[in-house]
Design goal:
3 helices; 30% helix; alpha+beta; 6-stranded antiparallel sheet
């Protein structure tokens, strides 16, 4: 029986095809209205401060009680620009969208809604593809929170 061997190019081609799927397109919408982020899907690859408190999807919003709205927005943008794997895709007055790209090419969307009246910034972090994220999005929000609070303290 003759055994065929796979060339390195076959493996590289297969890997390229698999990774091409990692860079899927962003969702068609991030908001349901001016202050509501789209809800997380049922898959466990998303966290949101607008999810039901106590649910597996819930994370605390970013708070800026002692800072102005502009200072909070600037602290958020500085935090995102300092992240090596982040790209700020859109930064409006009250809405910010950033993408985070892993070393394997997977793209996650992180969106923020600045709510001046409540002195908070709602956040949603979600993987574009796959089912599990192994806690990456929850850890990302926790890291962003620490860096955001540090930026606020520097002002």
């Amino acid at each position: 029986m003759r055994r065929t061997s796979r060339t390195p190019w076959a493996w590289i081609s297969l890997l390229a095809v698999l990774l091409a799927g990692c860079a899927s397109t962003p969702p068609s919408s991030f908001m349901t209205d001016s202050e509501q982020l789209t809800p997380c899907s049922s898959a466990p690859h998303c966290v949101s401060s607008q999810a039901e408190p106590g649910s597996s999807k819930y994370v605390e919003p970013l708070a800026f009680a002692g800072a102005s709205v502009d200072a909070a927005r600037q602290a958020l943008l500085k935090t995102l620009y300092a992240e090596n794997n982040a790209t700020v895709e859109r930064a409006d007055e009250r809405f910010v969208h950033a993408t985070f790209k892993s070393t394997l090419g997977f793209v996650d969307d992180v969106t923020f809604v600045i709510r001046p009246q409540d002195r908070i910034i709602d956040v949603k972090s979600s993987s574009r593809i796959g089912y599990y994220d192994f806690g990456v999005n929850r850890k990302r929000v926790a890291t962003l929170r620490v860096h955001f609070e540090a930026q606020l303290d520097r002002r």
